[in-house]
From TrEMBL:
InterPro entries from the UniProt entry: C1-like_sf (IPR046349), DC1 (IPR004146)
Keyword entries, A-Z: Membrane, Repeat, Transmembrane, Transmembrane helix
Top-rank lineage group of the source organism: Eukaryota
Record-annotated membrane-spanning stretches: 210-232
Keyword Ribosomal protein: no
Designated name of the protein: DC1 domain-containing protein
Boundaries of every DC1 domain copy: 9-54
Length: 234
């Protein structure tokens, strides 16, 4: 049985397992989340934790660092970048020697599968971009410093850095884009994608956007359904 109420060391009230319909900032790792989370019921607190942050395993491994044992840490370290997304670890994190990972980056799915307009799309998480990222137009997330993990489609055409999509999510979050979309009912179906249906199938711009939406959803920890694809309404 799933534990629906917990007492967490990071907050003075009990936290309850709930579902956030709009993205929230996790008060543990400071990254964004969406969907299931542990939340304080007192609205004035506005306190959220990713499920994986609230019930974090003390130790973890990752297939990209086979010989590393990651240890959960409550405190972040300024100036230390997450190997996956390149952003500083400002809160909860996993550490193995000099490798740092956000809990949500550690738990990224290794493959994303989607179906749209009769095309199926599969994106694989890779330890580095093998082609240019469609957002920053580079292979490395910070030139010469950090390569950064990327999701790359099996056809090789769609490549997105985890960090670049993460930044995009933050921009959308800061400008209130997600909540506006929610109040307009935009998250209830893939309306915005379907509109593209009639356009020339040669220029598959919508496929590119759909790939991006799959990645954006995965980074927010949302449920991967076609309906969730319109979260960004790109
Ligand atoms: Zn978190
Ligand atoms: Zn509270
Ligand atoms: Zn990260
Ligand atoms: Zn990029």
């Amino acid at each position: 049985m799933k534990i629906t109420e917990i007492k967490h060391f990071s907050h003075r009230h009990k936290l309850e397992l709930s579902y956030s319909k709009t993205p929230y900032q996790c008060d543990g790792c400071k990254e964004l989340g969406f969907g299931s989370c542990y939340q304080c019921n007192k609205t004035k607190c506005n306190y959220h934790l990713h499920e994986i942050c609230a019930v974090a395993e003390p130790f973890a491994t990752h297939s990209f660092s086979k010989n590393s044992n990651f240890k959960f840490k409550k405190k972040g370290k300024r100036g230390k970048a997450c190997k996956a997304c390149g952003k500083d670890v400002q809160g909860f994190m996993y550490k193995s020697k000099e490798t740092y990972l956000h809990p949500c980056c550690l738990k990224l799915p290794s493959t994303l599968n989607g179906d749209i307009n009769g095309e199926s799309l599969r994106l694989n998480l890779e330890v580095k971009a093998s082609t240019k990222c469609l957002i920053c137009q580079n292979k490395e997330i910070y030139k010469g410093k950090l390569k950064g993990w990327a999701f790359i489609s099996s056809c090789g055409k769609h490549c997105y850095h985890v960090g670049c999509v993460n930044n995009m999510n933050f921009e959308n979050w800061k400008t209130g884009y997600f909540s506006r979309l929610q109040s307009s009912g935009g998250t209830n179906g893939s309306v915005l994608i379907k509109e593209e249906n009639g356009k020339s199938s040669k220029n598959k711009g919508w496929l590119k956007r759909y790939a991006l939406e799959l990645v954006a959803n995965a980074i927010l920890g949302g449920v991967l359904t076609t309906a969730a694809g319109s979260l960004l309404g790109l």
